[in-house]
Design brief:
Layout: H1 2-9, H2 18-28, H3 46-66, H4 74-86, H5 91-104, H6 111-121, H7 126-140, H8 148-160, H9 165-183, H10 191-198, H11 206-219, H12 222-228, H13 235-259
Helix pairs in contact: 1-3, 2-3, 2-5, 3-5, 3-6, 3-7, 7-8, 10-13, 11-13, 12-13
Length: 260
Amino acid sequence: MAWWGKLIGGTLGFMMGGPLGALLGSSIGHQFDSGRRRAGGFDVGGQERTQAAFFTATFSVMGHLAKADGQVSEHEIQAARSLMHQMRLNKAQREAAIDLFEKGKEPDFPLDAVLHQFRSECHRRTTLLRMFLEIQVQAAWADGRIDSAENRILAHVGEVLGFSTAEIEQLVNLVSGAAGQGQSGHRMQPLEDAYQVLGISADAPDGEVKKAYRRLTNQHHPDKLVAKGMPEEMIQLANEKTQEIRNAWERVRDHRAAQN
C-alpha cells in the first residue's frame, strides 16, 4: 500500500485536484498530519497518483450505481464489502472506501467530471479502464440483475471511458454468464463466452487464438497492472482476471483438440 502511505504521510500533497481530489481529500482529510499538508498537487511519480484516482473513482462510482434505482440493496452493499475484503483494506482504508461509496450516492455526485478526470489520470490505458468498468458491472450485477437505471449508467460510464456499446454489452454478458456458472456449480464455460474473453471470433485460426491469449495474459499480469496504476490492494482481482483468461484459452484449446 505504498500509495496510501505516501498519501497519508503528506508526500503526495493534500489534494489531487479536480473532483477526484475533492472526494478523496474530504474522505480522508482527518487522517492527514496537518503539519505536513501541502496546497499543491501530487509531487511524486504518476503511478501513485493513478492508484489514488483508481481507488477514489472505484468506490464513489460504485455508490452512485447502487443508488441508481433509488434504493441501495443489501446485495449491493455486500458487493462493496466483498471488494474491500478482496483488497485487504486496513481500517483507515475501509473507512475511506465507505465514505467514498456514500458520497457516490449523493444527488449532486459529479459523475461525468469524475469519469473524465479518471480517464485522464489513467492516461487512457485501456486495460486499467476495462478493469474499472468490469468492477462496476459486477457491482451492478450483485443482486442477480441489472435494471434499466443501472444499465443506463453503465452504458454512460463505458462511453465516457471510451468503450463502444458492443464492448459494454459484451462485458455485461460475460459477468452475468460467469455469475450463472458460479450458481450452477461445475457447469462448463460456454464456448462463446471463452471466445469473448479472448476477444476473438470462433473462426479465428489457432495461431491467432494463441496470440490473443499471450497478449491478454501479458496485459493483465498483476505486476504490470500495478505498474500502470492499479492499486496494489487490487492484485487479487488481477490474479482472478488472469485465471479467467487462462480458463478461456484452455476451453477453446480443448474444444479444438477434440474436433481434430
